[in-house]
Design brief:
Helix content: 25-40%
Oligomer: single chain
Number of helices: 7
Length: 227
């Protein structure tokens, strides 16, 4: 078996640890320093795609749809959103770590088909919360593939996104009928309660990391009631 080759490292803000990008033949891996280990692998991305396919399903014919993707990852969430959305759409992808975006513009980008090259895509280097605070009914979908889901793992500031205040902010940033879709490593009944308390209609889906096999992940689908 071929050895792993290290391609780059990145510091997570506020002493969140070190990310390392590695490659072995055509396989890529992003790992976090310490016991958590591997966060993403280019062979296991089905649940990231499902996040977008479910979260953007209502926008296939929506002219000038506006979508926010929180978390660049390996580009699979962004790529799937672009597959669904019409040519007039705009997708803003936000990531705290500029190196992750750089990796996706480099060799890692081939995994997801180089979605950053799509003219509908814009990049925001910074906290996705900054965009959501500024949004005022502007977005038709918000897709969050940030950290480990509602229980922050790598960056404590992410916890705000899943708090009652953060959830209320996201609700206000969505247009009527807009969808919040959230990737999580597992279920979280407390988060479902917060979503419903905010006013969302909530559905919870279980998806596999690879089609038909692998670990089970959770997708929270929270729809803002149309008025």
């Amino acid at each position: 078996m071929k050895p792993w080759i290290e391609l780059g490292t990145a510091q997570i803000p506020n002493n969140g640890g070190i990310l390392t990008l590695r490659q072995r033949d055509r396989e890529f891996s992003i790992a976090l320093s310490g016991p958590r280990g591997e966060l993403m692998n280019s062979r296991r991305f089905n649940s990231e795609r499902e996040l977008s396919l479910l979260g953007c399903a209502h926008l296939k014919q929506r002219e000038s749809a506006r979508v926010v993707v929180g978390g660049m990852g390996m580009g699979y969430t962004l790529a799937a959103a672009l597959e669904v959305l019409p040519p007039s759409a705009e997708v803003i992808v936000a990531d705290l770590i500029p190196e992750v975006v750089k990796w996706n513009r480099g060799p890692l980008g081939d995994c997801a088909g180089r979605p950053l090259d799509d003219s509908r895509c814009k990049v925001h280097i910074g906290d996705v919360g900054e965009l959501l605070v500024k949004g005022d009914g502007d977005y038709d979908a918000v897709l969050l593939d940030v950290d480990n889901g509602p229980e922050g793992l790598t960056h404590s500031d992410n916890n705000w996104l899943y708090s009652l205040d953060g959830t209320s902010c996201i609700y206000e940033s969505l247009a009527p009928g807009g969808m919040l879709a959230v990737w999580s490593a597992g279920p979280d009944s407390f988060y479902v309660h917060r979503l419903r308390k905010t006013g969302f209609d909530v559905e919870v889906k279980t998806v596999r990391e690879r089609p038909g096999k692998g670990a089970r992940h959770t997708i929270f689908l929270a729809k803002k009631t149309a008025v």
